Structure formats: structure tokens, C-alpha cells
Amino acid sequence: MSVKTLHDLFVHDLSDIYSAEKQLSKALPKMARAATDPMLAQAFTDHLAETHGQIERIDQIVETMQIKLKRIKCAAMEGLVEEGKEVIEEVEEGLVRDAALIGAAQKVEHYEIASYGTLAALAKHLDQPEAVKLLLETLQEEKSTDDKLSKMAEQGGGNAAAAAGKGDADTAKASADSKKSMEAATGKKSGDAASTKKSGDSVPSKKTA
Ligand code: FE
Ligand code: FE
Ligand code: FE
Fold first, then answer.
1. Ligand nearest to C-alpha 144
2. How far is CA 16 from CA 1, 13, 92, in A?
3. DSSP summary character for residue 92
4. Across 102-113, average pLDDT
5. Which ligand is closest in space to the CA of residue 142?
6. Residue 25 CA to ligand 3 centre (angstroms)
7. H-run or E-run covering 107
8. For helices 6-34 and 75-90, what crossing angle results, to 10°?
9. CA distance 55 to 138
10. Measured in angstroms, how far is the CA atom of residue 18 from the centroid of ligand 2?
């Protein structure tokens, strides 16, 4: 495929993000199933619905501009989805996997944000206001999703532990215990931090156990 003009580049990039969205629409249901926190699963499901709408917007742009998309596969999304699969296979279920899933999803959103930003700028250059409007709508959805994921990562622990009940009890307890131990260790030993590492058995919670 030869890309010579900004118009060619726009068609190329639009074809690329079309492929990316299609790949993502297959991956999101798997990510939703792999999530422990029901709120995270819901966020993935909600974004799947948005993704379908985004694909429709691309179809609208194709119609408005009377262009034809190229058959290309977005290699970046292929890699990002592959990393998402690794997360599901390798990271233990529960809080840690949820954190990893959020990280994987945010990498996807950042790729999309960069792509739609470029496309909107190209459409503006090409004097295609309708395409600009549609691309900016999608860009806003990707940014909102990214923000939502950031907030979930920040509040994560509590929500997931409460929602997961049995599955996460151990993880949540371990995390709470280690936090307590750390507070105890740092609180009591704030003067000589160096000795904390040497004497691992000086953690108070161990004595009371
Ligand atoms: Fe998208
Ligand atoms: Fe791509
Ligand atoms: Fe997205």
C-alpha cells in the first residue's frame, strides 16, 4: 500500500483503528470475565457497548467521506490484546489480576487516544468537519474510560475485596496484615530503619499470633 498524501494517511490510520476496535470488541468480553471486581467487569462491558458505537462512527465517516478502508491488521492492538491474555493466564485471580487488567486496559486506551487525536487532526487538515466531530466524540469516550480506570485503580482494593467475598478474602487479609506489620515495624523502629531488615522477627504482629 502506498501512502503519499495526508488523505492516504487518513485512510490508512482510519483502517488501522477500525481493525483495532474490531480486535478489542473480541477481547473485552474475555477481560470482563477475568475481572474479580464486578464493577471492573461492568466497566469492560460498558466499554464494549461504546466500542460498537465507535465502529459505527467509523462506518459513518467512510460513508460521509466516500472512502474505502484498507484491509490491514493493527499490529499494536494485536500485541496489546496478547499482553491482556498473558495477564489472564499468568496473574493470580483477585486483586492483583484486577490491577493488571486495569493496566492492560489503560495501555489500550492510551493507544486509542493517540490514534483518534491524530485522526481528528488529519480530518481537520482535510477540511472534513463531520469526520472531526465524530472522531472527537470517540476520543472523549476513550479519555473518559481511561479516567474511570484510573479511579478504579486508586480505590481498587476495598471494592474488590468487599465484592469478591470468599475469593479475595485471603489476598485482602494478607495485604491488610502486611500493611499492619509495616506500620508496626516502621512506627516502632522509625529511628533505626536499617535494623528492620535484619531482624525480621521483630514485627509485633508475629508475637501476638
Ligand atoms: Fe475504542
Ligand atoms: Fe495500529
Ligand atoms: Fe477504548
1. 3
2. 13, 5, 33
3. P
4. 98
5. 3
6. 9
7. helix 95-125
8. 10
9. 10
10. 9
